[in-house]
Amino acid sequence: MTQPFAFNLKATDGTARLGEVVTPRGTIRTPAFMPVGTAATVKAMFTEHVKATGTDILLGNTYHLMLRPGAERVARLGGLHKFMRWDGPILTDSGGFQVMSLSKLRTLSEKGVVFQSHIDGSRHEMSPERSIEIQCLLGSDIQMQLDECVALPASRAETERAMELSLRWAERSRTAFKAMSQPGAAMFGIVQGGTEPDLRHRSARALAAMDCEGYSIGGLAVGEPQEVMLDTISATVPDLPAGKPRYLMGVGTPQDILLSVERGIDMFDCVMPTRAGRHGLAYTWDGKLNMKNAAHADDPRPIDPLLDAPPARDYSRAYLHHLVRSEELLAGMLLTWNNVAFYQALMAGIRASIAQGRFQQFKNETLARMAVKAKSE
């Protein structure tokens, strides 16, 4: 019998929540961070190393995978899990953000979006139904509705138009999902509305009425000030069902994660730890280290002795500095591994602190420690 999708809330500490998302392919401990596996790979990492960091779920990208190698091809080869050798849960985004931000030319209508590939200029159409179809072909465990994410700042009229269109697309996505999805799969609705509280309220309430398996807050972390993002989260969360997981899309820094967990968010994704690793930056409990800096050239210490992961524990700062300055591929591999391990250690610390009723203490101590390091850099 297929394990049904479920969210179990296990404890709260203020508005911070400890829980688990149950899927047919495994349980996701929340708050959770999802490393981004855009093109069926977490860049510069083996899947077994990703799993060893404590990662429960990966994110795949519908737009990139539909263009290359193609969703139908992945389906013929056994689905995304088999294709990339990952047996845990996978969440796929709808492709909408990439269509809006990467495609060379695009035409938006009620039906969907017609766009040109950023790779070869080929013409494609993405509708709510086609987005769900692609995600079903990939075989993802959690699927996202197609939405329109407007760039901020935007006028209220433009924000409201996109929010209303996203709601109509959510209804169509929901209908397609019910017709196409496998037992145990889930679809999350995406709350839009820019930084307008009343538009966020309308979006969240309308999506809640669709009885999705989970809900996402989209359209943030796109350049707005952090306090605006946090205020928008605080205004939106009360309208989301307490018994469903809440996913803040595209966020973010360790600081953003801690402050968003404080406001009731359960799931996160961001390219930041992997992208930073490929550019010579290491995340540690003392903040970020720029391994390009000459200060590390003669430093025999590990990156972070408090982080139980091989790249943080077993290689000297001097060696990693050498790899980065020599532009060796191993530099990006080791630093990416370190960063994903740090993010998962951060999430484990958050979960433990909520379980013990000391989240505020953990948050404050972690933020203070990182702030001291940032001032010294």
Written account of the structure:
The structure is a single chain. With 377 residues, the protein is an alpha/beta fold. It has 2 domains: 57-270, TIM Barrel, CATH 3.20.20; 277-376, no CATH class. The chain has 15 helices and 16 strands. A hairpin with a 2-residue loop joins β15 (281-284) and β16. α6 (128-138) crosses α7 (156-180) and α7 (156-180) packs parallel to α8 (197-209). It is globular and about 60 Å long.
Summarize the structure.
By secondary structure, this protein is of the alpha/beta class.
Strands, helices and their partners?
Layout: E1 6-13, E2 16-23, E3 26-30, E4 32-35, H1 47-52, E5 58-61, H2 62-67, H3 71-76, H4 80-84, E6 90-93, H5 96-102, E7 106-108, E8 113-116, E9 123-126, H6 128-138, E10 142-144, H7 156-180, E11 186-191, H8 197-209, E12 214-217, H9 226-236, E13 246-248, H10 254-261, E14 267-270, H11 272-278, E15 281-284, E16 287-290, H12 310-313, H13 317-325, H14 329-355, H15 359-376
Parallel strand pairs: 4-14, 5-6, 6-10, 10-11, 11-12, 12-13, 13-14
Antiparallel strand pairs: 1-2, 2-3, 7-8, 8-9, 15-16
Helix pairs in contact: 6-7, 7-8, 11-14, 13-14, 14-15
